[in-house]
């Protein structure tokens, strides 16, 4: 690690499911010191990784972390954040970081709930355990410095991803959600629609259809909680869903019109 650009951080992870563990492995590889807490007991997994696991959230908060990285689901984020005994923070300028797939929702909650002294960095790694299993090079890492006083700690945290070769993209939470509603949410919606249609590979698949079946399979590996979170907590998603419905209706109208022109009116 280049000490001129980064320093060793003490990072506490809240929510040590598959995504939290995925991030933790790279952070440990880089030499950072990690602690974790979660509703599920991950003490054995943490033991194998060399991470101190706290069943007691109060003890976790009192562990004097430089960074508290919240890796919960979108739907449980509010409950988890509000249940944290933040008055027990030892370090006044603790940097709080979220990694949710929506951004205005965690930003607003963090600003509302955290002590004024706490720093806030909202991020969205545009990859996960599947797409990032062979490394993070050229994968996009979006971030918004919502409230940063301790630039050194923030820079050291961002350097974790820059060092792995991520494309570092600074963007406002609002702009992220506008774009994500048109891209990520629509992708998940199409994938789940195809799953509802029970599409399966055939003996005469075109390349295009193979892409669709792959989209369905990839999408369905994510939970419905994630998908519904992308809808409920992104204020731009409702309009995009309506746009999709309107577009499908428009395409159907065009087909019916062409069929009428080609076949003529039906005789009684």
UniProtKB/TrEMBL annotation:
Biological processes, Gene Ontology terms: tyrosine biosynthetic process
UniProt domain Prephenate/arogenate dehydrogenase: residue ranges: 9-268
Pfam family, one: PDH_N
Keywords, ordered alphabetically: Oxidoreductase
Domain of life: Eukaryota
Natural source organism: Cicer arietinum
UniProt-listed InterPro entries: 6-PGluconate_DH-like_C_sf, NAD(P)-bd_dom_sf, PDH_N, Prephen_DH, TYRAAT1/2, TYRAAT2_C
Gene3D superfamilies: NAD(P)-binding Rossmann-like Domain
Protein name, as recorded: Arogenate dehydrogenase 1, chloroplastic-like isoform X1
N-terminal signal peptide: none
Example of a GO MF term: arogenate dehydrogenase (NADP+) activity
